[in-house]
Design a protein that fits this description.
Radius of gyration: 25 Å
CATH class of the largest domain: Alpha Beta
Low-confidence stretches: 1-71, 203-211, 340-352
CATH superfamily of the largest domain: Zn-dependent exopeptidases
Order of helices and strands: HHEEEEEEEEEHEEEHEHEEHHHEEHH
Number of domains: 2
Bound molecules: zinc ion
């Protein structure tokens, strides 16, 4: 027993030394871009080392770092401020303890992005943090497991002139200080174009060449459920109600119900409160070999008094203004989260897109029709125009029948009450399952006809 103890102690101390050497080594990469930002104003921070490596920001950190890295640090609104500094912006962010972090900028729209290891930002959006006239919008939340993101939408191109994290040796708190100065659009675009380390924002490009055989009822049907929003992007918010939470709850119930019904395999694009870029949602569906893609939402609509469930399929041409705004907002949510969407077109590149869509669009429309029938059949209230079209990014898979179901609108008092009512959710889920089953049957029959 004691010998084992001694042995493991010596192994542990060697491991500790190794870990310290590794972190010190990585430190030299990590510190470099920040130092550069301070001394060479035109340089943008370079990408840090691979995200899987825990990297302390201070040489003194390794001693406490091993523990500190897994602990959750808290953002502290007191002692934090974002304000104008001349024609630039000054950020002071207080955090309960030092954590690894990185800073970068993104273009279209101009954004400052700060990633922190394990920082709980709490209710930062409502903390009245920013008095800066150059900050248009601010958002924070989980990016992926272990990392949180703070995004500021800026009113133009700014460069990071200084960036540092100071630790208070007494209280153990940390303070992140940044100063941004206006810079040319060209210099900003250059800084924004610096790629993230591979896998930083988690999407993995799907296998583009993949083509799935159409379902004919002779095997299990793969349903990909896409609960909208999540993590840094809560979706529509009404008091304590977040669209992201509501649609995740319904998605889980739907998965259960489909598996219980039999004949289905189910994959969800997210199964926790985590941010998933629109691009990744489509990739997940392709990788799963989806026969059917169903996105779930419960948005707010400022214009008019929209209420009742609504099914959307991809627009063939220009849509009405409300639908266009809804679709644009979803894309904007994604942009605000600071994830580069420039690769979106690659997902569908190489697939004979229009050709595939010619076959897929009627199938998507049939799916929407089946869902409308089933939801009405369950006596659940639908929007006056229950099937609409919009240019939603997640519906753009050329060869996967896709629909987006707005379960109801968080902006409507009647809908709100239903959306959080478990009994109502169960009825809606039962209706969706019935709709999907009806569609699968007709769709398989049609495929059989086509083959003859
Ligand atoms: Zn939504």
């Amino acid at each position: 027993m004691s010998r084992y103890f001694l042995l493991s102690r010596s192994v542990l101390s060697r491991l500790a030394l190794l870990a310290w050497l590794l972190t010190s080594f990585l430190m030299s990469f990590w510190a470099a871009p920040l130092a550069m930002a301070q001394t060479a104003p035109t340089q943008s921070p370079a990408p840090p080392p691979a995200p899987t490596q825990p990297v302390p920001t201070q040489p003194a950190a390794p001693a406490t770092g091993a523990k500190g890295l897994t602990a959750l640090a808290r953002f502290e609104p007191r002692g934090s401020a974002i304000r104008d500094a001349g024609d630039g912006i000054a950020l002071d962010l207080a955090i309960s303890q030092p954590v690894p972090w990185r800073v970068r900028v993104l273009d279209d729209p101009a954004r400052l992005v700060l990633d922190f290891r394990e920082v709980d930002f709490g209710d930062i959006e409502n903390a009245a943090l920013s008095t800066s006239s150059h900050v248009r919008d601010l958002r924070a939340g989980p990016l992926r497991p272990g990392w949180s993101r703070l995004v500021l939408e800026l009113d133009g191109p700014y460069g990071v002139k200084t960036a540092e994290m100071r630790t208070d040796p007494e209280g153990g708190r940390a303070e992140v200080r940044l100063v941004l100065r206006p810079e040319s659009a060209a210099a900003f675009a250059g800084a924004a174009a610096v790629p993230d380390p591979p896998g930083w924002t988690l999407p993995r490009p799907a296998d583009v060449g993949y083509a799935k055989r159409r379902q004919t009822g002779d095997r299990k049907v793969m349903v990909v459920i896409d609960p909208g929003h999540g993590g840094i992007d809560p979706g529509a918010v009404h008091g304590k109600l977040h669209e992201a939470d509501i649609v995740l709850a319904v998605a889980r119930k739907l998965r259960e119900a489909l598996l219980r019904a039999g004949g289905f395999d189910v994959v969800m694009t997210r199964d926790s409160d985590v941010f998933v870029p629109l691009e990744t949602r489509v990739s997940v569906a392709r990788e799963a070999g989806a026969d059917l893609f169903l996105a779930l939402h419960a948005d707010s609509i400022a214009e008019g008094v929209a209420s009742g469930a609504t099914i959307y399929t991809l627009a063939k041409k220009a849509t009405d203004e409300a639908s266009a705004k809804l679709a644009a907002r979803h894309d904007r949510d994604d942009l605000l989260s600071g994830v580069d969407l420039s690769g979106t077109d690659d997902i569908v590149a190489g697939v004979l897109m229009d050709l595939a869509r010619d076959e897929t669009m009627p199938r998507s429309e049939a799916l929407a029709a089946a869902l409308v029938t089933a939801i009405k059949g369950e006596d659940l209230r639908m929007h006056v125009r229950p099937h609409q079209e919009a240019d939603f990014s997640v519906l753009k898979s050329p060869d996967i029948p896709s629909a987006l179901l707005e379960l109801g609108f968080l902006s409507s008092a009647t809908d709100r009450k239903q959306l959080v009512d478990p009994a109502w959710q169960d009825r809606m889920v039962a209706a969706i399952v019935a709709g999907i089953r009806a569609w699968v049957k007709t769709d398989a029959a049609q495929a059989a006809l086509l083959r003859q």
